[in-house]
Amino acid sequence: MSETRRVDCMKCRHYYITWDPNFPKGCRSFGFKSATLPSLTVLSSSGQPCMSFEPKPASNHA
Prior knowledge:
about 60 residues; 3-stranded antiparallel sheet; Uracil-DNA glycosylase
């Protein structure tokens, strides 16, 4: 079995925190909310790592 690269949703521009206490993590790219990180839901559902990962833009904070 090949090693799967783990996708860090918190560094992705599509990741967001929802107001739903049962499903607090969301993915705008795939359009769903989850109790776990969306990348783990994608991996368990498809068997493939998330292909929609896009790094968040760099912040301009000092």
